[in-house]
Design a protein that fits this description.
Region (Disordered): 24-43
Strand order of the largest sheet: 34-33-35-38-41-44-47-50-53-56-57
Oligomer: single chain
Keywords: Aspartyl esterase, Carbohydrate metabolism, Hydrolase, Lyase, Polysaccharide degradation, Secreted
Organism: Umezawaea endophytica
Strand content: 25-35%
Structural class: mainly beta
Pfam family, one: Pectate_lyase_4
Protein name: Pectinesterase family protein
Number of helices: 10
Radius of gyration: 28 Å
């Protein structure tokens, strides 16, 4: 995860309480007239601290002037109880992406008419169902602010519609993804193949909104950037709409000190070329923002008087344009700094969308004065733009010389990491690298988008989330076994791990490890093993830790064949589908919640794929736990024996005891793997309950005497008496 220092914006309220601060006089269009104060006058009973979607929805429904403080990361794609929702949960009326692609393939449907009929209706209904969940309505006189580092909303669409006097600050808006993009064969982009996939939801949407200040936020699509979208019908399958769109007669808006990154259609100002509500409105100031690796619309403008000043632009190879000059627009671009990289060119910075002129002053490109308007006109002599937008901005508080923008700091406060006795760090890996053996590393709330390694030399480290809730602190990446490296090779199963933990005596507590690789979005990748954690250390304790993934989520292993490693997973949550607990470690899962995900088939998956060495009596013990699943009854195996590379001395040992099993578990819950019979492995159950429990010849059971030997203490004691329980 990239780290950004935060420029502290000027504010007319003193103190560090961002919720009480108001937009300073003269700071852009939103300071005009009555100014923008948000919910700064809220009384104590109208100051809300929210930690999940349900709390956020309730707080936003308060009609009084209010301050809504967001702590941690709120996942918007959840039900009212906080359970995560997938795209399949929103689909109605028989919609599937496969059926939609088959029906509207240009080779079948053609390119002369928009999709219509039952499948298009089902797509629209499914999108509306998702929108009703992720849409977050904001009313007048509201301040929404991230509380501390790493606060944000993932997958949500903040809708400031018909509201006046709203402030949004210090939040990370992440991956507002539409599950149901619409194919439009007649919507074309400059220089691209015909057609476009269009999505519905903006991270922050302004419609009929006035006096709005959007300040110090970070907008990103990670871990699902537009640049990684699959290409369908010759165009990227675009799951994101705008990051900040200002349309439908909105007016008097200031967008300042935000970071916009890893996105295509970034900021749209104006609804349509024929709008009757936009003329005379859409007065917007866009200043001191960072536009990093965005494709277009930074911003694209219709009608409005838009002052674009002191912004830092870092276009990359998929850059289409930055400033879109549309119908009746009056863009005044002043003192902006550009760095073109990866094939992006200065003549691409401007695009004529039916406008007549713009004003450009003081642009620097890599420190040199260059007119991007002149570069565009030279490259596009048939569609030139004039050099006078017809107005001069006056509300430009804080206007700086361009050279000072080269190292602009902006965006929401990133998650923070501290090493006790050493200092603070922006990334988890930098903290690990600096930490001495035995150090305590504390992670503030947020999503840490990075791959981490704890080497064997860092014995005794403690990794802990600061809030006591695993969901607040997420270490995430999305490599799969078949994901290509820059050199063209692939990562392989071990290399796909988000976290590789090799040190003995490591403790991890109150955090989440996630591999967010999505098979559906990468049909070109067939090796879909995607490890969240590979753990090889001895005497490792995972306490209240969540492991999220699909295939091969948790690789509980040892550093070498013939070397034993003991690992204790206490009060942990683990999800996956295929072999998602696997490896040769001696691993105890005590009071765990194990979620077997529904792949929609039979078999749906396998909980375990142990590869315990023949001479090790103890492999995996699942005890006092609960397995949950929405999968169809009798479609899940408890496990199968993994023999890496055909190793005949890898004789899986798994005991599942005193555990609640769902109906998804098969009546014969063990199965063969790669030609090796499960009956030659060491699989057993004891005293399990729930609709998936059972006995019989295909369900070996421990006797009471045997059960006394297969305990937490027996698995973990080893020769040194280790007893973390």
């Amino acid at each position: 995860m990239g780290a950004l220092a935060v420029a502290v914006p000027a504010a007319s309220a003193s103190g560090s309480d961002l919720g009480r601060q108001v937009l300073p006089a003269g700071d852009g269009w939103a300071s005009s007239g009555t100014g923008t104060t948000g919910g700064s006058t809220a009384t104590a009973e109208h100051v809300h601290t929210v930690r999940n979607r349900a709390e956020l929805v309730t707080a936003l429904a308060d009609t009084a002037p209010k301050i809504v403080r967001v702590t941690g990361v709120i996942e918007a794609n959840t039900d009212d109880a906080g359970n995560p929702l997938r795209c399949e949960d929103f689909a109605v009326d028989g919609y599937t992406r496969e059926a939609y692609l088959a029906a509207y393939d240009p080779a079948v449907w053609g390119r002369d008419q928009d999709p219509s009929g039952p499948l298009e209706d089902a797509r629209a209904a499914s999108a509306a169902k998702q929108g009703a969940t992720i849409g977050l309505t904001v009313t007048s006189n509201t301040t929404i602010v991230g509380l501390g580092r790493g606060a944000g909303i993932t997958g949500g669409s903040l809708r400031i519609h018909g509201a006046d006097n709203v402030i949004v600050r210090n939040l990370t808006f992440r991956d507002t993804a539409d599950c149901f993009p619409r194919w439009d064969p007649n919507d074309n982009s400059p220089g691209q193949a015909p057609g476009n996939w269009n999505s519905l939801y903006d991270s922050v949407s302004l419609q009929r909104a006035t006096h709005v200040w959007v300040d110090g936020n970070t907008f990103t699509d990670q871990p699902n950037p537009d640049s990684a979208a699959p290409v369908l019908f010759g165009r990227p399958y675009q799951a994101h709409d705008g990051q900040l769109d200002i349309t439908t007669g909105s007016d008097l808006v200031t967008a300042s000190r935000n970071v916009f990154e890893d996105h295509s259609k970034t900021m749209l100002i104006g609804s349509s070329n024929t709008s009757t509500t936009d003329p005379g409105k859409l007065r917007v100031s866009v200043h001191h923002n960072v536009f990093r690796d965005v494709g277009e619309r930074a911003p694209r403008v219709r009608f409005g008087q838009v002052h674009v000043y002191n912004n830092l632009y870092e276009p990359r190879d998929h850059h289409v344009y930055s400033w879109g000059v549309g119908v009746n627009s009056a863009v005044y671009a002043q003192n902006n700094y550009f760095r073109f990289r990866g094939g992006a060119k200065p003549e691409q910075a401007v695009y004529n969308w039916g406008g007549t002129a713009m004003t450009e002053r003081g642009t620097l490109v890599d420190g040199k004065p260059i007119s991007l308007l002149a570069a565009f006109n030279a490259a596009n002599p048939s569609t030139p733009l004039g050099a006078d937008a017809g107005w001069t901005p006056t509300l430009d508080r804080g206007l700086e010389p361009t050279h000072r923008i080269a190292h602009l700091r902006a965006g929401a406060q990133p998650p923070g990491v501290t090493v006790h006795g050493v200092g603070a760090f922006a990334t988890v890996q930098s903290a690990i690298d600096a930490a001495p053996a035995g150090a305590v590393i504390t992670l503030q709330p947020g999503v840490y988008r990075e791959v981490i390694t704890v080497p064997a030399s860092k014995k005794g480290l403690v990794l802990r989330g600061s809030t006591g809730r695993a969901s607040d602190v997420v270490i995430d990446y999305d490599n799969a076994s078949g994901t290509k490296k820059p050199d063209g090779s692939t990562y392989g199963t071990t290399g796909s791990a988000t976290a590789t933990l090799a040190a003995n005596d490591l403790t991890a507590r109150d955090l989440t490890f996630r591999n967010s690789f999505d098979r559906a979005k990468h049909p070109e990748i067939t090796a879909t093993q995607a490890v969240a954690v590979k753990a090889t250390g001895d005497r490792m304790l995972f306490d209240r830790v969540t492991f999220l993934g699909h295939q091969d989520t948790l690789y509980a292993d040892s550093p070498a064949v013939g070397t034993r490693a003991r690992q204790y997973y206490r009060d942990c949550a683990i999800s996956g589908d295929v072999d998602f607990l696997f490896g040769r470690a001696t691993a105890v899962f005590d009071r765990a919640t194990i979620t077997a995900l529904d792949r929609g088939g039979d078999p749906n998956g396998y909980l375990t794929a142990a590869s315990t060495r023949r001479d090790n009596p103890f492999g995996f013990l699942i005890i006092n736990s609960t397995v949950v699943s929405n999968a169809k009854a009798r479609t899940y195996y408890l496990g199968r024996p993994w023999h890496p590379g055909g190793d005949v001395d890898a004789i899986a040992q798994v005991v599942v005891r005193d555990t609640v099993l769902p109906a998804a578990v098969k009546a014969a819950p063990w199965t063969d793997m790669s030609g090796f019979s499960w009956r030659d492995a060491r699989f057993a159950e004891y005293r399990n309950t729930g609709p998936g429990a059972g006995t019989g010849t295909d369900r070996p059971q421990l006797s009471t005497a045997d059960a006394a030997r297969y305990t937490v203490r027996a698995y973990l004691a080893g020769t040194d008496g280790w007893n973390p329980s």
